[in-house]
Design goal:
- The complex is a heterotrimer of chains A (about 240), B (about 250) and C (about 260).
- Chain A is mainly alpha-helical and about 240 residues long.
- In chain A, about 80% of the residues lie in helices and about 0% in strands.
- Chain A is built from nine helices and no strands.
- The longest helix of chain A has about 35 residues, at about 15-50.
- Chain B contains eleven helices and no strands.
- Chain B has helices at about 5-45, 45-60, 65-80, 80-85, 90-95, 95-120, 125-130, 135-165, 180-190, 195-220, 240.
- In chain B, helix 1 (about 5-45) packs across helix 6 (about 95-120) and helix 6 crosses helix 8.
- With about 260 residues, chain C is α/β, with parallel strands linked by helices.
- Chain C is about 35% helix and about 25% strand.
- In chain C, strand 9, helix 5 and strand 10 (about 160-165) form a beta-alpha-beta unit.
- In chain C, helix 2 (about 55-65) packs across helix 8 (about 225-240).
- Chain C starts with a helix and ends in an 8-residue tail after the last helix.
- The chains are: A mainly alpha (about 240), B mainly alpha (about 250), C alpha/beta (about 260).
- Chains in contact: A-B, A-C, B-C.
- The interface of A and C includes residues 90, 98, 102 and 183 of A.
């Protein structure tokens, strides 16, 4: 038992500081991905709602591809492929500079693309939940399409999409573990290194799982409170 | 289209595809079986059973599937001596079995959540009416509640199948030669990016195929319901609707 | 539209930290060296998170001869060649064997060592014959993307093969009883066998010599760097620097035939 405590201690003998540093990278990765996931997801949702057939088709194709491919595959394709693409672009433009593929960026890009596919579906069903009357009323008041979207629709959209977005966030937190495969120092990779050095897989993987549980649990609690607050104006008193 | 590459690795990728398919089907099947007692504990059990089932579901839904896989695969290696004594080592020695076990436990947790959410979504009136007709609990489940619950659960179950296909790719990390494993091997020998496109195509075939088939099945099985379809059965948004039985689908990994 | 283009280029620049590469082709006074860091005693990361090993010492000696400043970058093995081609570093010094398949993508300097390969198996199994016929149906392991995994794939078709991200992982699975034998470089395996978690296992069967030796991996267009490195390799072999580094790690010369 003393062994276990020693291994989990902080400082040079124990691995807790490495694990926590990894957890910090995990959270950083998820937070960095979040804005792109939401922004791109909203854009794709708008595409899918577009009256133009081509735009809608592009939106649907995007969702089909990134929801249908395993995240690991997407990640590896971007990690190995993006530098090649960027290099080809630069060569075509005539810039002779070399490019450094960055694992963190590859991780953020891959996770954003995948996450956006899911959030776009959340936004789409939220859009469908807003009655046409809202749009018509706004137009009747003289607001153009953009202002309607920003002032009238978006606030309602946020409330309706919260459950789906909360789910997306939790999935994102867990998906970050895949970057351990491209040697990014997240929580799972730190755990792998600890296991490699100490040969105690059960202890460390269980600890890592506990850390993930704490992260997802804390997120779920916070998100539920946000949802409750967002619901407040809409709660009808029991009939 | 690099034909030489296709010749060298094409057949192996198809082998990998069948490994993936078998792994997914087996995990979903055993996961479904294992989820039944969990659901029962959640819905019918006393506080203690409910807590255990809840903890199980929470653990497997709150942690990444890759971490769960590592826990089973490397953990089994650590307990090799005990497993050898129990005569089970030959099973845990095999990476495919470890992946199957990890995936089964994982999908069972998600399926339990889906099913218990769907059961909770069945209006209380159904229960009361069934009881007033004098039906015993097993009969109520079999004849009244489950048929209605399964209608609601169809969409999330379909999502789960697709998500399991995608999650299976992580098995390649522990030396299973599924589709992803063969792809990585092919890339590591040839460094030709094309192999990733083939893998992408094959995975899309699988996931889209399942989605289309499942959608057709859903439409056929719910054709007796109002045009709104199965999901609108509940009426006012209930607590169960919050656990995403939505278009976005149950997220997992 | 031009603002959009500017933003895109800026984003790419930030993300990929484009290094000024114009001057590189004329003067090689700063060389970035890619290595793995998980292959003791040739390259490994010590407890101070520094990359050490035979490969590192050789690279440092060569850079000294070239009067260049060398920095080391760790990269996982499967991505080590793509990263070189993409420009993450300028040379691979990671005990990479010279093979025809790799020569299709990158170029190599002359070899700087050549050691045989060997099987390692649990001592309990008493494995002596390591021919494909004897190992039929057994589970064999090797690191992926190596000449050893290639050798297994080409010659041991009747056995179940498993490939791993790093040599360490293959060794771990052997010790855990998941493999019947591991094929890898004899020197690297000897190093592992000295460790406590390798007490299960020992070398099985004779030395196997294949491959063209280990060289420094370079991009095909960097022929000038190749010439510089080749000259430096000859120099350190001639003036005894190589022998000093060799003797620091091994009791015999690993330069090979």
């Amino acid at each position: 038992m003393g062994d276990v405590i020693g291994l989990l201690a902080f400082g040079s003998a124990g691995w807790s500081d490495e694990l926590l540093a990894g957890a910090a990278v995990t959270i950083a990765l998820a937070l960095a991905t979040l804005p792109f996931s939401l922004g791109l997801g909203l854009a794709v949702a708008l595409l899918k709602r577009s009256d133009r057939k081509l735009s809608a088709a592009v939106g649907h194709a995007y969702t089909t591809v990134f929801r249908g491919l395993p995240e690991l595959l997407t990640l590896l394709m971007i990690y190995y492929g993006a530098p090649l693409v960027v290099q080809a672009i630069l060569k075509a433009v005539g810039v002779g500079a070399r490019v450094e593929p960055n694992a963190f960026f590859a991780g953020v890009l891959a996770l954003s693309l995948v996450s956006a596919a899911f959030t776009s579906e959340v936004f789409l069903s939220a859009f469908n939940g807003i009655s046409r009357g809202q749009w018509e009323g706004a137009y009747a008041l003289g607001l153009n399409r953009r202002r309607t979207l920003g002032l009238v629709i978006l606030p309602q959209l946020v409330r309706l999409s919260l459950p789906g977005l909360s789910n997306s966030w939790l999935v994102l937190l867990k998906d970050t573990s895949l970057v351990s495969i491209i040697a990014l120092e997240d929580l799972l990779r730190a755990t792998n290194l600890a296991v490699g050095a100490t040969k105690q897989p059960f202890l460390f993987y269980t600890s890592a799982c506990c850390l993930y549980l704490m992260m997802t649990g804390a997120s779920a609690l916070v998100l539920r409170r946000i949802e409750t607050r967002a619901e407040r104006p809409y709660i009808r008193s029991p009939a | 289209m690099n034909l030489e590459l296709l010749e060298r690795y094409g057949p192996r990728m198809l082998d990998g595809l069948s490994v993936t398919a078998m792994l997914v089907v087996a995990s979903l099947f055993f996961g479904a079986l294992f989820s039944l007692p969990v659901v029962l504990a959640r819905v019918e059990g006393g506080r203690f059973l409910r807590a255990i089932a809840g903890a199980y579901i929470q653990f497997f839904r709150g942690t990444p599937i890759l971490a769960q896989l590592f826990l089973v695969y490397y953990g089994a290696g650590q307990f090799r001596v005990g497993l050898e004594e129990a005569g089970l080592w030959w099973l845990f020695r095999d990476a495919w079995f470890c992946a199957l076990l990890a995936f089964t436990l994982n999908t069972a947790a998600y399926q339990a959540q889906i099913l218990s959410g769907a059961i909770a979504n069945v209006p209380r009136g159904q229960w009361e009416a069934a009881r007033s007709l004098g039906l015993h609990t097993p009969a109520i489940y079999w004849r009244v509640v489950l048929p209605q619950a399964l209608m609601v659960a169809l969409r999330p179950y379909g999502n789960e199948v697709v998500l399991m296909i995608k999650a299976s790719a992580v098995a390649s990390v522990v030396t299973v030669f599924d589709l992803m494993g063969v792809t990585r091997l092919a890339f590591s020998r040839s460094f030709d990016f094309e192999v990733y496109f083939w893998a992408a195509g094959l995975y899309l075939l699988l996931t889209e195929g399942v989605r289309l088939v499942w959608g057709a099945m859903e439409r056929r099985l719910t054709r007796h319901l109002a045009p709104a379809g199965a999901r609108e059965m509940g009426g006012a948004p209930t607590a169960a609707a919050r656990t995403p039985v939505t278009a976005a689908g149950e997220g997992r990994r | 539209m031009s603002t959009l283009k500017a933003i895109v280029v800026a984003a790419l620049a930030i993300a990929f930290s484009i290094g000024g590469a114009a001057a590189q082709s004329e003067k090689w006074n700063k060389i970035r060296i890619g290595t793995e860091g998980e292959y003791p005693p040739f390259n490994f990361i010590d407890s101070n998170k520094q990359i050490q090993g035979f490969d590192i010492d050789i690279a440092k000696a060569l850079c000294a001869k070239l009067k260049a400043e060398c920095t080391f970058v760790a990269q996982d093995w499967d991505g080590i060649i793509p990263a070189l081609v993409a420009g993450k570093y300028d040379a691979i010094v990671a005990s990479m064997s010279i093979t025809e398949e790799r020569k299709k993508r990158i170029d190599f300097t002359d070899k700087y060592y050549h050691t045989p390969a060997v099987f390692v198996a649990p001592t309990k199994a008493g494995l002596k014959d390591v021919s494909p016929a004897a190992l039929k149906g057994k589970t064999l392991g090797a690191q992926s993307s190596t000449i050893h995994s290639g050798y297994l794939e080409d010659n041991y078709k009747g056995s179940t093969l498993k490939f791993y991200k790093s040599q360490d992982e293959a060794n771990a699975d052997l010790a855990a009883g998941r493999l019947d034998a591991v094929l890898a470089d004899k020197v690297a395996l000897n190093d592992w066998l000295k460790k406590p978690d390798a007490k299960c296992c020992a070398i099985a069967g004779p030395d196997l010599t294949y491959g063209g030796g280990v060289g420094i991996g370079l991009r095909k267009e960097d022929q000038d760097l190749k010439g510089l490195f080749n000259k430096a390799i000859k120099e350190i072999l001639a003036d005894g620097t190589y022998k000093k580094i060799n003797d620091k790690y091994f009791t015999f010369s690993i330069y090979g035939p």
